[in-house]
Amino acid sequence: xxxxxxxxxxxxxxxxxxxxxxxxxxxxxxxxxxxxxxxxxxxxxxxxxxxxxxxxxxxxxxxxxxxxxxxxxxxxxxxxxxxxxxxxxxxxxxxxxxxxxxxxxxxxxxxxxxxxxxxxxxxxxxxxxxxxxxxxxxxxxxxxxxxxxxxxxxxxxxxxxxxxxxxxxxxxxxxxxxxxxxxxxxxxxxxxxxxxxxxxxxxxxxxxxxxxxxxx
Length: 216
Prior knowledge:
Elements: H1 3-13, H2 36-47, E1 52-56, H3 62-72, E2 77-80, H4 87-92, E3 99-102, H5 111-116, E4 120-124, E5 127-129, E6 134-137, H6 146-149, E7 153-159, E8 163-164, H7 167-173, E9 185-187, E10 192-193, E11 201-202, E12 209-215
């Protein structure tokens, strides 16, 4: 019998008894039950200092706000996923929007457009975390991870009702233990690094701008 077989046989022969798990105390992670406006205020206070740009569109047309912001930045091509929303809303809008590049085929066939021509990527979010000013992104086949990581501008749609006080609150409310994607992303601002001579630079490893449109 080889050493590998010996180890595996020992594992099979184990009784299966395990030590009792110590009781967990999460009280230190609990926060007050903030209302939506308080969560948004805290979310803004945490994200804006790290160059996240937040626009409250709850009382207006978020597509109009998007149109204005992208026109100011001279974006001519925007990447969107192929899910039902927000694609349907964008197509139905009469706002002056950039040309839409829809992620509906293997990236190899339009890689040149993605890396050299796309000016912005629009994604939905699974929610936000008020305490840390973070977005929760849940990549899927309809909206892959590169939609938020490759374009120089990342525009994220955040539902105000999807704001949670803490990461623990979000994980419990959304039952993360019941199943997660290969990559769950927490985004707290644009890409930044200070690796080179300790000088802070944006957009080195991903988007140089993060724009959050709060909708409902």
